[in-house]
Amino acid sequence: MKKLNNFKMQVFVLVMTGFILGCSEFVIVGVLNDIARDLHTSVAAVGYLVTILRWFML
User: Fold this and answer.
1) First CA to last CA across the chain, in angstroms?
2) pTM to 2 decimals?
């Protein structure tokens, strides 16, 4: 029974980690225009920066 509870906790942590890492790109895309305005650059340039950031996160 203890092994089953330990397994459930490991699965929960794995799922939550995947969810958090997966949502991070969608949050940035939601505020992409604001980031571009603050950096005084185009939305496309900020999009490329987000893409590069994602590749380094892998």
Assistant:
1) 35
2) 0.56
Sequence-distant (6+) residues with CB within 8 A of 47 are: 32
Q: Which residues of the chain have pLDDT under 70?
A: 1, 58
Closest alpha carbon to 31 in 43, 20, 19, 22: 43
Classify 41 in phi/psi space as left (phi over 0), alpha (psi -120 to 50) or beta. beta
Angle between helices 2-30 and 43-57 (to 10 degrees): 160
Mark out the alpha helices in the chain (DSSP H runs): 2-30, 32-39, 43-57
